[in-house]
Amino acid sequence: MIAPRKLPTRRDAFALPIVLVVILIGGVMLMLALDRQGMQSRSSLRVQQGYDEFHTSRGLLQIIETWLRSGGNRPLLDRLDDQGMAFSLNVRGQPPVRVYMEDAQGSVMTDVLYLQGNSGRDAQRLLIAMRDAAVGDPDPTRFFRSAGPTQVSVHTAPPEVLRALVTSTVGPNYADAFIDSLLKARQQQRLRSTDIVAALNAATVPAGRSRNRLNRLMTVNPQLWKVEVEIGDPGNLTARYRGVLQNRPPDRTGASGPFQRRLSVISWEKISTTDQP
User: Fold this and answer.
1) Dist. CA 49–CA 52, nearest whole Å
2) Which string of b and e fits 55-83 if b means at least 16 CB within 10 Å?
3) Cα-atom radius of gyration of the chain, to the nearest Å?
4) What pTM was estimated for this model as a whole?
5) Helices 209-216 and 193-202: crossing angle, nearest 10°?
């Protein structure tokens, strides 16, 4: 005997929407849980990447400082090759590392209000002269910097900066001859202190206080450097770093104790491997 089919009741029809709602709520909760887990994983990855990045940067800066210490009193410019490479590292099982350095002290320091005495007044006069000369220039920012020593490197100072140096100290009448002599010497060789003296003599700058002021504002041993680090083979870089560092020289004896910092970090960042200098 065949049992009669049971027809759905109102209670069964009411239960079906409840089941669907429970399934929907369960699905939403599962999606939220998975999304939360993904966010936690991404957050953990960012923390790990930041940790690795921090220690890589610190390690590179420590290596650069160790290399600077190893040179003693030898001018840093004399330690760079024709491409500006300071040194390279090749460790088995690790990508090669190349460090390039470039003189960044050929412009005029802007943060000079805190300076006192004759050096402060000289630096402030130079800044005023440079600002006046930069009016109308299409790219005046190349004449100024906000960090580093007040002295200007004669190796990389453009003619406009050299003119401001002369004008603010000994007067504009000596500028043309001085600049001409110094630039000619710069094209032939790496400048020494004797080249500055020769340029001053060629311009017939008289001995005295004004000439001494001009001398104090120039240097052949810059401390401020643009630094670029390449990690990986040329054409297949895995990382690049760029920054501005100040290399503080050792004392007059050449000593540099373990607690004496040689390197001040002005700026430092990781950049794209495809960015151009």
Assistant:
1) 5
2) eebeebbeebbebbeebeeeebbeebeee
3) 32
4) 0.78
5) 140
CA neighbor of 150 nearest in space, from 117, 124, 183, 178: 124
- Would the pLDDT of 254 be above 70? no
State the CB neighbour count (10 A cutoff) for residue 209: 9
Q: Which two tokens stand for residue 61?
A: 């800066």
Q: Which residue has the tokens 């460790």?
A: 91
Paired tokens of 221: 């041993």
Beta strands in the chain (DSSP E): 85-89, 97-103, 108-109, 144-145, 152-153, 218-219, 224-233, 236-247, 263-271
**Which residue in the block uniquely carries the two structure tokens 């069964």?**
12
**Cβ count near 3 (within 10 Å):** 5
Residue 43 pLDDT: 59
What's the CA gap between 69 and 258, in Å, rounded? Answer: 10
Tokens at 62, concatenated: 């420590």
CA quadruple 218, 223, 227, 233: dihedral positive or negative? positive
